[in-house]
Write a structure and sequence with these properties.
By secondary structure, the chain is of the alpha+beta class. The protein has a domain at about 20-45. The protein is about 30% helix and about 25% strand. The protein contains 1 helix and 2 strands; from the N terminus they run αββ. A two-stranded antiparallel sheet has the order 1-2. The longest helix has 13 residues, at about 20-30. It is elongated. It starts with 18 loop residues before the first helix and ends with a strand.
Length: about 45
């Protein structure tokens, strides 16, 4: 007999990032600079 997938899935807990993780990503994006050299893009990290 075919398995039915019409039942509701269990509710999952909403996952939120830690404040430290958000700060790390924001600081990284502030330090990252992309420079176009000819036809290529060069990524420079100021850290």
């Amino acid at each position: 007999m075919a398995k039915l997938y019409t039942k509701k899935a269990k509710s999952t807990q909403k996952m939120l990032p830690k404040k430290e993780t958000v700060n790390f990503i924001l600081n990284y994006s502030k330090a990252l600079k992309i420079v176009k050299v000819g036809n290529e893009n060069v990524e420079l990290n100021a850290n």
